[in-house]
Design brief:
The structure holds two protein chains of two kinds. In chain A, about 40% of the residues lie in helices and about 25% in strands. Chain A is an alpha/beta fold. In chain A, strand 2 (about 50-55) and strand 3 form a beta hairpin. Chain B has helices at about 50-60, 85-90, 100-125, 130-140, 150-165, 170, 190-215, 230-240, 240-255, 275-290, 305-320; strands at about 1-5, 10-15, 20-25, 25-35, 35-45, 45-50, 65, 70-75, 265, 275, 295, 305. In chain B, strands 1-5-7-8 form a four-stranded mixed sheet, covered by helices on one side. Chain B has a four-stranded mixed sheet with strand order 4-3-2-6. Classes of the chains: A alpha/beta, B alpha/beta.
């Protein structure tokens, strides 16, 4: 595999949310903003300014590249911290914790990169939810690792074949910025449609 | 969202902050937020600032140049969509494929059914008209469409249906000062033809914008064959919309006396007919109003404007070609 075939860590998150959305964004190159993505971007404008510093006993690095040769992952971390010699990732998200586990997948993938880059094993990460101003602990359990690795493989296949996963209408579609392009309900509607004679 | 039409000869198009700014003779004639614009059409001659050009490209707003008469000159095209899969599906269906035949059936059926429905509606409104024979001829062209599996034969049905429609089009014009005998183009030599041609140019800009957004290659069509510089797919997708939008606007402009013969000028020698500056403004206003008007989309079952419908039909076409839906439903309205 050459350099082009590293998987963006963010794609794992999208894949966990909706496979079809992941295809649209990372295979078809489509992106549309909505209220949520704009909020997210302006949050990340603040977070994604490269810098380092410390907060009491904690050393912080913002917006650095993470990479794993083993899993062929690449992406930018919002924040990496070191406390008592232990590294861990912190991912920033708008809003509060959602019902889906896609954010955990992303943190786990960051931890996998960090393990390879630092040589130490990482058992924790955090998600900072801007709405509640609170960090939520993400335990990098075996189960989560397995999910993340399976998702990495699925995304790899998706990016390599470019095969489009079907658009399936779910509750998540309501918040999706690509709704107007995807039109997930249209398959059924066209199927039922009888053109006037 | 809408299209900005710049009709003032020698206008200057610039940008200030987040707004498009049009000046003439040092006076501001238009000042609109760029976020509200999804297309700019220049009729005639205008100057555009480098800053405005890059802003339009950045925001994926296409800029179309039409001659004063409405003849299409060209277009400043923002970066093409990265969705290679739509273009791949479009090219894979090229030629005499099952999918190409299906969509051509759709385009032709959509256009002819809308022609027929328009005649039926007029006949009901004005019982003194004699449209029955033409409606029958249209029915005869529509009936065999779905069992005709050659694109050339479908072109024949389309031709026969259009001929029937334009043979009685003069009956739909209820303003005595205007007559129509046959479709004449390049150049149109009577006011009615000049309005139709102008309207189809505007429609083409809009449809091409929609198919660009969806990610198609506008130059590969199915009903219209490839020819250098001809956006065949835009012409294909236009078919079903012609009667719904342009013909309807032309007829209402004439029948409601919103345009009179005073709004047309005829060139000496060539007899090319075009609108006056004032007439053009009137027609553009009517066209823009029509695009914003709403109807219930028969497939989606919800309200939608014609402007939205351009993109919707293009998306349905993409979904059909990519195998997401089983059929392409042309927009047919009663």
């Amino acid at each position: 595999m050459d350099d082009l075939e590293y998987i963006p860590i963010a794609a794992l998150n999208q894949y966990g949310y909706c496979q079809h959305r992941c295809w649209r964004m990372f295979c078809a190159g489509e992106f549309l903003d909505n209220q949520y993505t704009i909020e997210g971007t302006s949050l990340h404008d603040r977070v994604h300014t490269l810098g380092e510093g410390s907060r009491e006993e904690t050393w912080q690095i913002r917006a650095i590249w993470l990479k794993s040769e083993r899993y062929k992952l690449i992406g930018k971390a919002d924040l990496i911290e070191v406390e008592n010699g232990q590294w861990y990732p912190v991912e920033y998200k708008r809003g509060c914790k959602g019902e889906w586990d896609n954010d955990e997948l992303q943190v786990c993938a960051q931890a996998l990169c960090l393990e390879e880059m630092t040589g130490q094993s990482i058992s924790n990460g955090y998600i900072y939810y801007a709405h509640s101003h609170q960090r939520q602990l993400v335990e990098i359990t075996n189960q989560l690792r397995q999910n993340a690795i399976a998702t990495i493989q699925a995304v790899q296949t998706l990016l390599m074949t470019g095969e489009m996963p079907k658009a399936v209408k779910t509750k998540r579609c309501d918040g999706c910025s690509l709704f107007s392009r995807c039109l997930p309900g249209v398959v059924d509607k066209v199927g039922r449609y009888q053109e006037a004679t | 969202m809408g299209t900005v039409y710049i009709t003032q000869e020698d206008a200057f198009i610039g940008k200030t902050d987040e707004r498009l700014h049009v000046k003439f003779d040092k006076k501001t004639i238009l000042d609109v937020p760029l976020i509200k614009i999804d297309g700019v059409v220049v009729l005639g001659r205008a100057t555009i600032s480098p800053a405005a050009i890059s802003e339009l490209l950045e925001r994926h707003i296409p800029l179309t140049f039409l001659a004063e008469t409405g003849r299409y000159l060209g277009r400043l095209e923002p970066e093409v969509s990265k969705n290679i899969f739509v273009r791949k599906a479009q090219w894979q269906a090229a030629g005499e494929s099952v999918q190409a035949i299906h969509v051509v059936q759709g385009f032709v059926r959509g256009k002819l059914k809308n022609y027929r429905n328009m005649l039926i509606r007029r006949q009901r409104e004005f019982p003194d008209l004699d449209l029955a024979a033409y409606i029958t001829r249209l029915e005869q062209a529509i009936a065999p469409i779905d069992t005709t599996n050659s694109i050339n034969s479908l072109r024949g049905l389309e031709g026969a249906g259009s001929a029937a429609y334009f043979s009685c089009f003069h009956q739909l014009i209820r303003a005595t000062e205007f007559t129509f005998t046959t479709r004449s183009r390049r150049p149109p030599t009577d006011p009615v033809n000049s309005l139709l041609s102008f309207g189809y140019s505007l429609l083409r800009h809009d449809i091409q914008g929609a198919i660009d957004i969806v990610g198609f290659d506008p130059y590969l069509g199915y009903l219209h064959c490839e020819r250098y510089g001809r956006p065949a797919l835009a012409l294909d997708l236009m078919e079903e919309f012609r009667p719904l939008i342009v013909d309807a606007v032309v007829l209402s402009a004439l029948n409601k006396r919103l345009l009179t013969s005073a709004e047309f000028v005829t060139e000496p020698l060539s007899h090319a007919v075009s609108l006056t500056w004032e007439g053009r403004k009137t027609f553009l206003r009517l066209y823009a109003q029509k695009k914003q008007s709403e109807f219930k989309h028969p497939v989606l079952g919800r309200k939608c404007s014609y402007q939205e419908a351009f993109e919707l039909q293009a998306r349905l076409l993409a979904k059909y070609l990519m195998g997401e839906i089983e059929k392409y439903p042309p927009l047919v309205l009663k």
